[in-house]
Design brief:
The complex is a heterotrimer.
Chain A lengths: L8 E10 L2 E11 L4 E5 L6 H8 L7 E6 L2 E2 L4 H7 E4 L11 H11 L5 H11 L15 H13 L5 E5 L7 H16 L3 E6 L11 E6 L2 E7 L4 H11 L3
Parallel strand pairs in A: 3-8, 3-9, 6-7, 7-8
Antiparallel strand pairs in A: 1-2, 1-4, 4-5, 9-10
Chain B lengths: L1 H34 L13 H28 L2 H33 L7 H22 L3 H27 L20 H41 L1
Chain C lengths: L2 H20 L1 H19 L8 H22 L3 H4 L3 H7 L4 H31 L7 H26 L5 H28 L8 H26 L2
Helix pairs in contact in C: 1-6, 2-3, 2-6, 3-6, 3-7, 3-8, 6-7, 6-9, 7-8, 7-9, 8-9
The chains are: A alpha/beta, B mainly alpha, C mainly alpha.
């Protein structure tokens, strides 16, 4: 991993619109190693758009995303190598086994010894015994673990998470929170998009609120959630 | 609400141009029936030529512009280009429909059959199908950015398909009247016929411009209404 | 091996492996092709038209329809669980991604064609004899071009509500030049005509492949990158 001390992710004046409809208005953000940025907002506020822009899955109408200091548009491949995305979908093929899925992902990222890497990742996730099964046969919690294993397979330094706690039961959610804390401690940076702040409050180091495509709040997380919630509801106009 | 006014003024300009073109069309009818001589061998049936050829011209113009503007869209990502391409495609469908109906009406008395698989006739039929496919794809997509990208790709591919269809159908043999206007030597049409044809071509070009302008303004107004709906 | 080629092969191998696992699309396309051949035999007046006269057209209409069915599946697998995002997130050039999908589709359509051809010989009592290498060459030449266009269109069609209908509406006009060329070349091959008589058609097919494979490869990014 190249040594790089600056911000992991920077967004400057990030905007996405089509025609006269603007989905996201001039977002600026910085994410450093070990930080977890919680982006909260109601459905349709532009949270998924922001995440897709940061992941390089969507091209901004204006502004730019920098990954490890380099513009994502100019060095897409370099940026993609250090970004991991945990989508609300698993990104896994039902017609392939878990091991085949992760081996395929390892080959896409050009990892050495793809099959061994994939198997090790599955074992780390506690899915070793189920490596030969189709994702179709996993419970929601196990599927989420497989999806995380896939997202972390290539050792990203930035993890983007789209509503990661949705549909997880309490035990699975707690397990995921533990895993994310471990990753933060190892110096990963995270952007976690959620419409339910309570799920990520303890994890976040920084809190932002998106309302109708506007970045209406951006501050370090401080105090208890209960003291922030009245403000949050005011910001999103609920 | 100045933006809404802009859309309205574009529609108004389009209506004005279209009205002018329709007046011109009336003049073309007069010219065709009064001024130009009756063609010796084909008789009155030949008069449809003054509608058939110019509508073919306009359809081809519409289609080429869809293709070119699609290419520009993929480069510049300007939604105005997408709006124009969509408008041009819709107007192009109308012109190719005129061409496809006037063709057989002329062909029945002259060639003795409603339809032949003549190279240029077949080509226009495929232009029509391509336009319809293009518009069907647009109608089936919800996200405006995605719709713009996908239809631009179809637009470019379609433009490049045209020479291939023409070539392959041409190699299949043809019995369409050969071009006599664009021959390198002096045109063999009598001057009255040529003049009427040129006037009609100008009128159809104006009609194309008017209709596309109107459609463009309507598309803009529609987007503004959607935007207002989003804000509410 | 250049990185792009490696990545294209990785993508193609993934598609082929997934298809061999389920086999649904491949089997139904083959059965469909066999049925079309049978239907064609009865959809003619045997006193007016001999099966051999109709043979080249039957072969190519069957190939085209079966290919359409096989192409429909190309991007449905990428739709499930957001798998396409997984591909796009990876550091893979879009051109290599398209090449991978194209290779996999060519493998499917080629398999269907390879199974259909002997059935065609059997049902239509055609004597391929010396024409076989020529017919294989013409099939490859004609198939590459329209499968390239079909690959990019299937990536678009899966995003629409009536994907199974949208693909043929978009793709059929693009199948016309390769189909005309292939039928003409095939009938000359079956009649044992010299190569010089079909050279024009072969050039047309080759030019079509060149233009549309290049164009679709370049345009693919516009389809998948938002």
């Amino acid at each position: 991993m190249p040594s790089y001390e600056g911000a992991l992710v920077e967004a400057h004046g990030l905007r996405r619109s089509f025609g006269r409809v603007r989905v996201l208005h001039d977002v600026n953000l910085t994410l450093a190693a070990g930080e977890a940025l919680a982006v909260a907002g109601p459905n349709g506020a532009g949270k998924s758009t922001l995440l897709r822009l940061l992941a390089g899955l969507m091209r901004p109408t204006a502004g730019e995303v920098r990954i490890l200091g380099r513009p994502l548009r100019q060095d897409a491949a370099g940026g993609r190598r250090v970004i991991g995305l945990l989508s609300h979908q698993s990104l896994l093929y039902d017609d392939l086994t878990l091991l085949e899925n992760l081996t395929f992902a390892a080959r896409l990222y050009g990892l050495l010894r793809p099959r061994e890497t994939a198997l090790a990742a599955l074992e780390h996730a506690g899915l070793g015994p189920r490596a030969g099964e189709s994702p179709r046969r996993l419970s929601r919690g196990l599927l989420q673990r497989a999806a995380i294993a896939r997202a972390l397979l290539h050792g990203p330094r930035i993890l983007l998470l789209d509503e990661p706690f949705t549909a997880l039961d309490a035990a699975a959610a707690e397990r995921l929170r533990e895993e994310l804390r471990r990753l933060l401690a190892r110096g990963l940076g995270m952007v976690i998009v959620t419409h339910h702040l309570a799920e990520v409050w303890d994890l976040a180091t920084w809190v932002s609120v998106l309302a109708e495509g506007r970045w209406v709040c951006d501050e370090p997380r401080a105090g208890a959630l209960s003291s922030f919630l009245p403000r949050y509801h005011g910001l999103i106009g609920a | 609400m100045t933006a809404g006014a802009a859309a309205r003024s574009i529609v108004r300009r389009g209506m004005f141009l279209t009205a002018a073109a329709l007046l011109g069309l009336a003049a073309v009818y007069l010219l065709a029936l009064q001024y130009t001589p009756v063609e010796a061998r084909q008789g009155l049936a030949q008069k449809i030529f003054y509608l058939h050829v110019p509508s073919a011209w306009s359809a081809l113009l519409a289609f080429s512009l869809v293709g070119i503007v699609s290419g520009l869209y993929l480069w510049l990502h300007d939604p105005r280009l997408d709006r124009f391409a969509a408008s041009s495609a819709e107007v192009g469908v109308a012109f190719s429909a005129v061409m496809l109906t006037t063709g057989p009406i002329w062909a029945k008395p002259i060639w003795g059959t409603w339809w032949t698989w003549d190279a240029r006739l077949t080509l226009t039929l495929f232009l029509f199908f391509l336009f319809v496919g293009y518009l069907a794809l647009r109608a089936a997509l919800q996200d405006p950015a995605e719709r713009a990208r996908f239809s631009a790709v179809v637009g470019i591919l379609g433009l490049l398909l045209v020479p291939f269809i023409h070539l392959s159908v041409y190699l299949f043999r043809t019995l369409h009247p050969q071009p006599i206007v664009l021959k390198p030597s002096a045109p063999s049409l009598p001057p009255e016929m040529l003049r009427t044809l040129l006037v009609s071509t100008l009128v159809f070009t104006l009609l194309y411009v008017g209709l596309v302008t109107m459609r463009y303004g309507l598309a803009l107004a529609e987007e503004e209404r959607e935007e207002a709906g989003d804000a509410a | 091996m250049p990185e792009s080629v490696r990545l294209a092969l990785v993508v193609a191998a993934k598609d082929i492996r997934a298809e061999l696992r389920s086999r649904t699309a491949l089997l139904s396309a083959v059965v469909f092709a066999a049925l079309v051949l049978v239907v064609f035999n009865f959809a003619r007046d045997p006193t007016a038209l001999s099966a051999t006269d109709l043979a080249p057209s039957v072969l190519w209409v069957t190939f085209a329809l079966a290919a359409m069915l096989a192409l429909n599946r190309a991007f449905t697998v990428e739709r499930e669980n957001g798998a396409l995002d997984g591909l796009l997130l990876a550091p893979i050039p879009r051109e290599a991604l398209f090449a991978g999908k194209l290779l996999a589709n060519l493998a499917f359509v080629g398999t269907v064609e390879a199974v259909t051809l002997p059935l065609f010989v059997l049902f239509f009592n055609v004597d391929l004899g010396a024409a076989l290498p020529g017919i294989v060459a013409v099939t490859v030449l004609a198939t590459v071009g329209f499968v390239a266009v079909g690959t990019i269109f299937s990536a678009m069609a899966v995003r629409t509500r009536f994907a199974e209908l949208m693909l043929p509406v978009l793709l059929l006009p693009f199948m016309v030049p390769p189909l005309i060329g292939a039928v003409q070349a095939t009938s000359r091959l079956l009649a044992g005509r010299p190569l010089s008589e079909m050279l024009g058609w072969l050039r047309l097919l080759a030019l079509y492949d060149l233009v549309f494979v290049t164009l679709c490869t370049l345009a693919f990014s516009a389809v998948v990158d938002e």
